[in-house]
Amino acid sequence: MNHIQLENISKIYNANSSQAQSALALLAEGMDSIKVKEQTGYSVGLYDINLNIKAGELHCIMGLSGSGKSTLIRHINRLIDPTSGKIWVDTSISAKNKDNTHSEIIATTKPSSAINILELDDKELQHYRQQTVSMVFQHFGLVPHMTVMQNVAYGLRVRKMSVSERHEVARHWLNEVGLPNLEHSYPDELSGGMQQRVGLARALATDNPILLMDEAFSALDPLIRAQLQDQLLELQERLNKTIVFITHDIDEAVKVGQRISILNGGRLVQTGTPNELRHNPADDYVAQFMSAKA
Ligand SMILES: Nc1ncnc2c1ncn2[C@@H]1O[C@H](COP(=O)(O)OP(=O)(O)OP(=O)(O)O)[C@@H](O)[C@H]1O
Ligand SMILES: [Mg+2]
């Protein structure tokens, strides 16, 4: 069952629609994004991305710096709107009553209960962000003048949950990520690894079914990073969320990802399980990534 579907998504930055059309025409002829930038002056974020992410899947997005990973993930919570294309999200799937049969390979039709999130008005978008998607950022994104507890409970306060209830939920998630007894600390009193755990607890506390993680563990040293990867996998066993996880580290992608999508110059080169990519790389770029795996 598909949870998120990107359909022909392209993003040309800082261009009006006719300028974007000229860049898209060059991309359609096969010109790469660097040449398009040279010729038109416009940056290509993404070109013609078609990607299905299944319910309950931990899906990694991989690629070199500038390949479009952050651009892609930021479309899913509409921090970025595309130049063209559609983004379908099945908002009937909740974290609790999810259909966990994700054995099917990519379905070709959109799920009947999916909505095109580009059509949401401001109020509906606010609701979508409160109820459906949460994001963990690379540099923690914690509010410095709020305590750990207030940071984790923030999304619940926005939802108007009572103080005692939201504190109970926040305490539960701080415990789950291995940070009991730190609720009264401020972010700058914590190590990077601890701050990232707070960021994770904050995203999990909302109970939203989709979790977006943009290089969430990249700033951490290797040992702490490995611990957080293990913790994420252990939590995912129980939570069965749909997780979109960005990394530029192939070892991390192979460890945590059920499937991996590889981007190059704003194009989606290949989606597959680690084994599929290893044994059947679509091109040299994918093969080089897979052979770089320790
Ligand atoms: N706000 C912006 N304005 C103009 N161009 C942008 C903007 N954001 C990204 N780009 C361009 O879009 C392309 C993709 O950028 P993106 O940030 O998505 O890459 P990335 O894969 O996340 O890279 P990194 O690994 O460095 O985070 C790059 O060429 C980048 O310069
Ligand atoms: Mg990025």
Account of the 3D structure:
By secondary structure, this protein is of the alpha/beta class. It is built from eleven helices and ten strands. It has a six-stranded mixed β-sheet with strand order 6-7-8-3-9-10, with helices on both faces. Strand 9 (259-264) and strand 10 form a beta hairpin. Helix 5 packs across helix 6 and helix 6 (163-176) packs across helix 7 (192-205). The protein binds adenosine-5'-triphosphate (ATP) and magnesium ion.
Q: What is this structure's SSE topology?
A:
Blueprint: E1 2-12, H1 17-28, H2 33-40, E2 44-54, E3 58-62, H3 69-76, E4 84-90, E5 114-116, H4 122-131, E6 133-136, H5 148-158, H6 163-176, H7 192-205, E7 210-214, H8 222-239, E8 242-246, H9 250-256, E9 259-264, E10 267-272, H10 274-279, H11 284-291
Parallel strand pairs: 3-8, 3-9, 6-7, 7-8
Antiparallel strand pairs: 1-2, 1-4, 4-5, 9-10
Helix pairs in contact: 1-2, 5-6, 5-7, 6-7
Adenosine-5'-triphosphate binds next to helix 3.
